[in-house]
User: What shape does this take?
Amino acid sequence: MATDSLQQYQDVVFEHGRSPWQDAWYRLKQNKLAIISLNFLAALVVIAVLTPWLAPYGYETQNLALGASSPSAEHWLGTDIHGRDLMTRLMYGGRISLMVGFAATAVSLVIGVLWGAIAGYVGGLTDTVLMRIVDILYALPFMIFIILLMVVFGRSLLLLFLAIGLIEWLTMARIVRTQVMNIRNQEFVSAAVVIGLSHWQIISRHIIPNIIGPVIVYITLTIPSVMLLEAFLSFLGLGIQPPQSSWGVLISGGVETMEEYPWLLLFPGLTLSATLFALNFLGDGLRDALDPRATRD
Amino acid sequence: MELLNVNNLSIAFDTRDGKNQAVDNISFNVQKGETLGIVGESGSGKSVSCYALMGLINTPPGHIEQGKAMFHDVDLLSTDEKTMRGIRGKRISMIFQDPMTALNPYLSIGDQIIEPLLIHEDVSPNLAKQRALALLDEVGIDDAASRYHQYPHEFSGGMRQRVVIAMALITEPELLIADEPTTALDVTIQAQILELIKDLQRQRNIAVIFISHDLDVIRYMADRTLVMEQGRIVEQGQSQTVFNSPNHPYTKKLLAAIPQQAKPAKFKYTPKKNNSLLSVNNVSISYGDRRSRFQAVNNVSLKLAKGEILGLVGESGCGKTTLSQSIVRLINIDRGEIQLGEQSLHKLNTSELKKARKNVQMIFQDPYASLNPRMTVFNTLAEPLKIHRLAESSEIKEKVLCLMTDVGLDPSWANKYPHEFSGGQRQRIAIARALAVEPHLIIADEPVSALDVTIQAQVLELLLTLCQQRQLTMIFISHDLDVVRYIADRTAVMNQGNIVELNETETLYQEPAHSYTQQLLSAKLSR
Assistant: This one.
């Protein structure tokens, strides 16, 4: 074929062409629910970052005379039993909850995926050693472990993140390992070896993109579970301490006074549910968008 | 006497791309005691139409749009599930393609064989066992009484298919549907199983619907033959007539596509002096641990000259794939040496090997598994160029498009993903990927086995043309004797890890010297 006509093809194919990422973004944009969720989550993040400037009150500012009051013009979402503005506490609480969620996600993405991918890809003794470490960490009684950490190092937010991060990548590593063992035996991986790719190139270019579906789904399950775990730890007095707040803390506090002051449960509950819905919709959307086998155009 | 009468059957599937008319208004009948062959390429609707008779179509996405299938006085397509259950496995039974997955690995074969009997007939387990043992004996399982309690994994593929056949026949059905029952089997085993089905059918005077993509098998088995294309029956008649004087152009095309002659003269290799490219010397490879080792390749030697195509044939487990994988260093050898030009491939360390990889490339069997589903064709083809720095980044686009035209792909498809291509097109992508690094040697491991016969002919033609244009040397591995005869200059026959015979292809096919080669060639269905 003459170079001229090939040139012509180049123009046609690559001027209007899309990279796989553009393709995925294009498909994601088709999914209205996912885009709404994405915007909602982005707004949450912006609010969380700007909370110190946006919040109408301080998170520990009390107005004991007011006590628990229902929503009003001054306090849009009402106040808690100590007379603290609920919206302010919800905004500050979001900072902690989102941070816990994202930290756990980051840990399980980075450590969990890599750990599992290496174990599944290399196999043999490496696999055995890596997965036995996972088993040992699984077997540690988590509560005792955290209490010990707190006793030794004192209570701190960093330690809370560390503790949650330490366990949250374990399941991810197991899921990824199984997936990788499946993919590794496919012919396109052998083809990549024969072409002369290094192991690292094979893992990053041929294996990880093919396990992204289950990874994303698991991530959307991880975030809510760590948010609740944080609430549980805080409830036991091992997490964040009053007057700081998190969504989990607000909800567990709200449950106690649910009958007298329902708004104290309602608004934190709604916020958490909306966030979790948004995460799920976005996760589903991402999984479909990143799969080129989904319908196009 | 007419046993089954299918009238105006249409089946459609709802897919994301709209309606897919899998079966389009077909009518046929089956007489008592005859074998009806249905032949066609993948997607022609041959299996779907028979699955519909058994009520095995999933609805949705599939639905039967119209038609009747009268089995005696019951319409199989409209009758209720209860009546269907009484017919399925009792009066009509089925043999599936893959004996490895058609049996439940957790039940002994005896329990599985008597299961349909216990469900459909009021017999005591003891009597059922008696009948099962008699039948196992009849389908050629030696020492049935002691094997009765064994599990499927203790049987070879051919033996399992015998068990599946016994299971299908235990209720003494009037109609047996066999869906590609020998496709997963080796050629010598295939011959035995076909013979068995023929004998059983004759003795019991049952009707058989025999589905296959393999024209030779259908010709051998069927009294009458239907040829299906894209959901329609394009030709039907006595097998003799259909195969000897086909009417429809599609039937002619199918028959013409089977490679049945020697290599075309224009592609013949003329030996030159002193241009040896590959030499494999006394290579042995084994698997397993210290307690039990399996010798996959046993002291094998062969030589290839530049520009030559060597065919490697043998049955599954003979070591042909293991040997080829050792040449591309997917696995390591225990002993011996592999010499490519001046280089000792088996001695290279990791970094030397990475560079040397571009000299030997491989084409894999399954074009659905050998391409990364998440990479566009462009990225798949650009990858080897980038890894080996064979093109400036500005030239990569042009080179990739050039490669695509070379293998007969439309370059405007460069940004598509593998799933958007057909099997044959995918195999072309895989060939282009192997060619991208301009290798000296190509190893093709059953590259056309997963393809339909007309596509297979096109891909073979492409491989021959490319080898000639580019002075490529190739090792072509296949279980299909006809294909190897068509493409190879010399042929090596492997059995149990040894090369038992290696000779000029035509000499080997016409005057096989080794008894195993003779056995292989005689198992091939003659025309």
The interface with chain B takes residues 1, 3, 6-7, 9-10, 12-14, 17-18, 20, 186-188, 190-198, 201, 205-206, 209-210, 290-293, 295 of chain A (CB under 8 Å). The mean pLDDT of chain A is 82. Chain A has twelve helices and no strands.
